[in-house]
Amino acid sequence: MIRFGDIKPMGWAREELEENMTGCIGNLDRLVPDLIQEHDIYHTDRLGKGSKLRELGRNDTGEDKLEENQEQFLWWNSETQSNWRDGFCRSAMLLGDEEWLEKVRAYLKKVQESCDDGYLGIYTPELRFACTGENGELWAQSTLFRVLIACYEYFRDPELLELLTQAVDRLMQGYPIYQSHPFCLNNPFAGAAHGLTITDALDRLYQLTGEEKYQKYALWLYEEYCAYEQSEKDLQIQSVANRNVFFQGHGVHTYEHFRALAIAAEADSRYQPLLERALDKLPYYLTPSGAPIGDEWIWGRCADASKTGYEFCSVHELLHTYCMLLEKSGNLEWADQAEWIYWNAAQGMKHPAESSIMYLKTDNCYTADEKRTPDENVRNPRYKYSPTHRDAAVCCVPNSGRILPYFLQSTVLETPDGYLLPFYNPVVFTGKRGETEVTLNLKTNYPKELTAQLEVSVSKPEIFDITLRFPQWATVMKVDGVEYRREEYPSQKVVLRREWSHETVQIEFDCKICLQRDRKGDLYITRGPLVYALEIPAQETITREYDVPGFCEKTYRSTNRHLEELRLKESAFSQFRYTGSHTEKWSDLTIEGVLEDGDKSVPCILRPMARTILRKVTFAPVNE
User: Fold this and answer.
1) Contact in structure between 503 and 456 (CB atoms under 8 Å)
2) Angle, CA of 213, 219 and 221, to the nearest 5°
3) Contact status, residue 112 vs residue 94, Cβ threshold 8 Å
4) Does position 148 have pLDDT exceeding 90, yes or no?
5) What confidence score (pLDDT) does residue 61 get?
6) Helices 98-114 and 158-174, interaxial angle, to 10°?
7) Strand duo 451-469 + 418-421: pairing
8) Can you give the three-state secondary structure of 328-381, one letter per residue?
9) 6 has pLDDT over 90
10) Residues 6+ apart with CB under 8 A from 165
11) In this structure, are residues 360 and 311 in contact, taking their beta carbons and an 8 Å threshold?
12) Looking at the whole model, is its pTM more than 0.85?
């Protein structure tokens, strides 16, 4: 089994992790100290009936004490803390920086000290496994357990595994299988719905230990979730089974709940057709960048590049879902989807030059001054660049620190016959096949350059497969250095089978500029795994400076709104030319062409949306 830490980042992947750790991810505890340093929600400040509300980025009721209808506000900080810890700890471990690792060890010691008769959670005994209103029990433990699982896999510490399994067993005692109803609640809302993600931890524990009780419990939790009225019901059995039911819920819940259904389908094959039906619905909610509607609720809408926003939380959760589907099915189409959403939606939400993100963004982003579109009167603080987004919720920034470690973890997967490399990320994998030590060193500047070099080393010669993804966007895949065969079902791939010793494989892709059409009928341009956009010039305004030097919030307002009206003539697409070259700069990966401004043609330069601020991705077609 490949465990967290077996795959080490190199090249741009390492540089991006370092930028995160010297930026807002490594400094979030200093940027919002009251949420992370001063609120020990998992230990000394556990929640009870006398707990006080805290300012967590939403409008407080002004009440001091816990009331039944206020419980949803109280669990929020467990999400902030544990999601941030997840990204921080995984990044520290992947980088191997001793200063950051010392912080990880100190955190783990603190978690061990918080253990109360096996319990690792946010409630005092009076509320533990007893919330009848908004229940954050499962969600708080889910976000904590995934941190502990990664740390156990990295440090290989049996005491960590014992701590984790004791906590999960305590949870299973608190909600005994077939004898309790953790999702039967009064007016359930977001905390309870997020709690279904505890199935992620149960699934990984099943893989690590082989204990079937974890898989069985995960299946039972999904069935229990479907048995009762929920605020988030898009992935309930009865909703998925009806082809005419559109997704309505809070986007991030919908996209994370796909994983619970996938885990249920693996445990019980009767749910496989249901999973396939749910996945058939998904494309209707995706913008050209691959981003899913999530601003914040879906509300039965289809994706629109200008009108439906998406949040970083939803982008991360959908990428995580794609990676799980890839790992469980081996179908490389999910790798294409994961790569697309990472390089376009996720990268397009990060500030190109500073450590901050937009909480919400649209593909066609015409303003970033706390409004979704320039002509709206309602302000939404999520539509700006911030290193915390404290005035909305500190959830998307922590998830921006999680997404790359999760993406990198799926770069090398084990198969019965060898290894699968679904992504072309610069990494070094070290592991064993039986008694044979195997090193796979993938060197690449992909996707800025569509080439890679794979160096394979083994401690003694051995025959096994190395399977490479043939990307959907590629017209040609060249593999030099070893013999291979190409397979096309259920997804395109190249299989290298030989007796490996010390070999080097050169990989190169050819592609063309493509004209794509979204569900609205508008046109957009892609090349390789990248969506291209027309950058819109903007006026930058600093709206807040933090006490931590180097961090601020910024808004952007277009200085040329006329660019929003440019259109594209299909017959002119043949004139578009790729002018990029081998480069480290996104801005040099350009496509030159012609757009239409009324009755005249104007030359344009398109750049990857991956590092843009204001931009136009889709263009209404010109009637010819």
Assistant:
1) yes
2) 100
3) no
4) yes
5) 40
6) 40
7) parallel
8) HHCCCHHHHHHHHHHHHHHHHHECCCCCCEECEECCCECEECCCCCCCCCCCCC
9) yes
10) 205, 209
11) yes
12) yes
Q: What is the residue whose two structure tokens read 């010390």? A: 502
Contact 256, 197 (CB under 8 A): yes
User: What are the structure tokens assigned to 522, written together?
Assistant: 């508008």
d(Cα 198, Cα 598) in Å, to the nearest integer? 54
- The residues, any chain, with a CB within 8 Å of residue 41's CB and separated by 6 or more, are 47, 77, 78, 81, 122, 140
> Rounded distance, CA 617 to CA 607, Å?
10
Alpha helices in 5-136 (DSSP H): 11-22, 24-31, 33-36, 71-74, 76-95, 98-114
Q: Which pLDDT score, from 0 to 100, does residue 70 have?
A: 56
Q: How far is C-alpha 448 from the geometric centre of its chain's CA atoms?
A: 21
Q: How many residues does the chain have?
A: 624
**Which one-letter amino acid corresponds to residue 70?**
Q
CA distance 310 to 318: 11
Question: pLDDT by residue (tens digit) across 238-293?
Answer: 999 998 999 999 999 999 999 999 999 999 999 999 999 999 999 999 999 999 99
Contact between 51 and 66 under an 8 Å Cβ cutoff? The reply is yes
The token pair at 249 is 């819920």
Give the C-alpha distances (Å, rounded to integers) separating 9 from 55, 378, 441, 530, 548: 37, 42, 10, 21, 28
Q: What is the DSSP string of 507-559?
A: EEEE--EEEEE-TTS-EEEEETTEEEEEE--EEEEEEEE-SSTT-EEEEEEES
Long-range contacts of 347-351 (CB under 8 A, 24+ apart): 347/609, 347/610, 347/611, 348/289, 348/609, 348/610, 348/611, 348/612, 348/615, 349/312, 349/315, 349/400, 350/400, 350/611, 351/385, 351/554, 351/613
| CB 422 within 8 Å of CB 326 | yes
Q: Name the residue with tokens 């990857």.
A: 608
Q: How far is residue 13's CA from residue 351's CA, in Å, rounded to a whole number?
A: 17
Across 362-492, the runs of DSSP E, i.e. the strands, are: 367-368, 385-386, 413-415, 418-421, 427-433, 436-443, 451-469, 476-480, 485-487
Tokens of 448: 């800025």
